[in-house]
Give the backbone structure.
Amino acid sequence: MGKAAHTTRRRILDAAEKLFAEKGFHGVSVREIARAADVDVALVNYHCGRKNDLFETVFLRRAEVLNRERLAMLNACRERAAPDPPELEDIIDAFTHPLLTRSARGGAGWRRYFALVAQVNNSPELAPIGMTRYFDPLVQQFIAAIREALPDARDEDIYWSYHFLSGALTLTFAQTGRIDKLSGGVCRSSDLASVHERLVPYTAAGFRRLCKPDKD
Amino acid sequence: MGKAAHTTRRRILDAAEKLFAEKGFHGVSVREIARAADVDVALVNYHCGRKNDLFETVFLRRAEVLNRERLAMLNACRERAAPDPPELEDIIDAFTHPLLTRSARGGAGWRRYFALVAQVNNSPELAPIGMTRYFDPLVQQFIAAIREALPDARDEDIYWSYHFLSGALTLTFAQTGRIDKLSGGVCRSSDLASVHERLVPYTAAGFRRLCKPDKD
DNA sequence: GTCTATAGCTTGATAGAC
DNA sequence: GTCTATCAAGCTATAGAC
């Protein structure tokens, strides 16, 4: 694979990422992607296979990078706390920090990628493939860490708490601008620093309330 | 409009609701909807206009019912507490209870409708139309009630807290089955009673933690 | 209200020349 | 690796018969 091929392929993946994030898998045609990448239609097939493969490649490309970063952060906070289990807040931070930082400062490609993840997470058609396959193995490791941090919690409460965190996090990534209008400009979808500052205490408080041992 | 027309139109709307919820706006063709409704393609246009109009009709149909119910519950809990402001937990319950009850016990149509809302809420293409237009006027009334319940909170914290609640709630409605696999069967996407029991305390704890007056 | 027929496009995918 | 050309299929939307 020569250098030209490599950048052509990249241009296709970048264009696909952008358009899939904006309009969803079915909302975009291969021709539209080719046009946005300034590349001939036939080259999309040549470099990235069929539309389905293209989508999976786009989805997987950055998932691997992210999962490595998040796992490294989890292990770091485990070591810092050892031999005690890590604090819940630190675990949640290890889970969300790499994402919010990339979305805020990683450039437009990353921002769009997260908007795509948000749609996939809420799609009955795509979530069972995309999220379960590419993210849940990592999530299991975080669940295990939370179990250590909250030793009296029941599994059901931990899983549901994670579920709520996942929903809050991915809606943030969707960057729909809804909160901008709702708040009359007080909050901005793009202000991920404000989100990060709030999401960790918000969800940690939720976890603790649900997982209190004296609950029932 | 005769009786036959009325039920034909209903069959079309029901079929559209189901398919839009499963595969999104672009993932479904008008022909597919006609086939599912057991109706001629031309009748879809005759009764429901173009595809865009059909989508908006489906989206609006149940939004109106829901918003009436939620507003009635909010006013009821306001009156119960008067002259004091209502409790935060009661406000959140008024916001979520009608939805979770309809989704759990309203039948398949309602369940599918909520899955559709989940996708719209996370779509940069559709959220600015669907959510902002049809739901945010009601949300403003809930925000106002929360402002009274937490008089020392800053607006930013209230809006972001609402945003997290919205994400957690709509991901629940998406019914993707992701949590079923993740939890190895301990939790089920369809078990909305378990969600309702947990979502109110979880999000209320988050609100309170973020909106503490001694925060900064 | 319902159906047949069709106009006029766009779609995903590839075969074959260079 | 790239582009031209093309296919068969599907699409939205409507006109017109009944």
Notes: The two ends of chain B are 61 Å apart (CA to CA).
